[in-house]
Amino acid sequence: MFNIPKGTKDVLPTQSYKWQYIESTAREVGRVFNLKEIRTPVFEHTELFRRGVGETTDVVGKEMYTFEDKGGRSITLKPEGTAGAVRLFVENGLSSTPMPVKTFYITPAFRYERPQSGRLREFHQFGIEVFGSEAAETDAEVIFAASSFLNKLGIKNVRLELNSIGCKDCRSRYNSALKEYFKPHLDDMCESCRTRFDTNPLRMLDCKEESCKKTVASAPSILDYLCDECKAHFEKVKHILDCQKVRYAVNPRIVRGLNYYTRTVFEFVSDDIGAQGTVCGGGRYDGLVAELGGAPTPAIGFAVGIERLMLLMENTGASYPKEPVPRIYIGGMDESSREAAFTLASALRSAGISAEVDHMYRSVKAQMKYADKLGAEYVVIIGESEMQSGELNIKNMRLGTSATVKTDEVYSYLKEEKEND
Ligand code: HAM
Questions:
Q1: Is the pTM here over 0.90, yes or no?
Q2: 124: CA distance to ligand 1 center in Å?
Q3: From CA 38, how far away is CA 86, in angstroms rounded?
Q4: Count of structural domains within the chain
Q5: pLDDT tens for residues 183-197?
Q6: Cα 408 to ligand 1 centroid, rounded to whole Å
Q7: Positive/negative CA dihedral, 79, 85, 86, 91
Q8: Whose CA is nearest to atom 31 of ligand 1?
Q9: For a Cys staple, 381 with which of 42, 205, 331, 338, CB 3.0–4.6 Å?
Q10: Shared-domain flag, residues 208 and 280
């Protein structure tokens, strides 16, 4: 008996339709926003994430699944989708195709974190990445795509929090201001904040320790340190969101946990799923393509955590479509009627109708019970007399009614019934 590794989850046969629904909704968002799907390997060279996500982040510093392969290379299971998408963009010369290059992906991701509700070691993301445009309209469109995805799934009660963390220049001025502010408080702050003070002071704003939160509350705001261009960009993003009646709150404390961000950053947050309330996070990363060896190319994207999204759907009563059931169960009584049942099922399946037959040599009574358990919409049992007459008695399980239908007319009967449903 083996147990599933800590922080991972199975998808059971009775649950997979929920995943399929979310994934098809993601693909539908991809279609209407003209995003093309990309797929990158589950593992990449470790260096990609070190350079891409940043050495000073928790993700790279503490959480990566890194190992040496048999060829002595350092390999890492992807902790997120952006770095791989950028590598794909650069390596395949997509910068010489018409801009913007608009992509989406659905991918597993791996982080060695302490598992808790909404936090797993293997999780899944639906993400989009758009390369080549620095227009504020693109920021807005990416945010619309995230919000449209959540809306389509019937999710309510998430709030959009928006911030700008400026460009390199704004941030270097802001980092100095932060250091000046935090310096006299350092003794009262947690161990990781003291480390972040030297490596990445911006991340101190994100600290969850109660003792640090108070100090953080009065820290200077990044919005007071934006240069004129970054300020104008942020104003324009907000203006477009306002025009489109997208509700948001500016939260100058959003800094995001990955180092590549510039200018616009945003999160969709819920209070209905406990401590890990961020279902979607994203932002601009105008420096990353160049950092990973490409020509300077602005870019922006987001990722939604699918498990967190499902938790949110469950906790807020957002509904899934009904689990698919067989359209018809075709039972048999003996060797030859079972054969006839198989033949009819094959014909219906070839025509695209889901059909189920008996695999367990159940009695007729037990077959009826089983068909009911399956939720089959129609049930027919073939016996000797049906074989002789070529006429079947098809029972509509929902209405409790029956109809006599010729064997070779079952397909049209079911099709017609569907239209009347
Ligand atoms: P992130 O904020 O690290 O951003 O992750 C995005 C989402 O993935 C989170 O909001 C959360 O829903 C989910 N997530 C993250 N870690 C876990 C975990 N351990 N367990 C379950 N769900 C988790 C990124 O990954 C960026 N690549 C997003 C992005 C794309 N920015 C620009 N483009």
A1: yes
A2: 9
A3: 11
A4: 3
A5: 999 999 999 899 999
A6: 53
A7: positive
A8: 282
A9: 331
A10: no
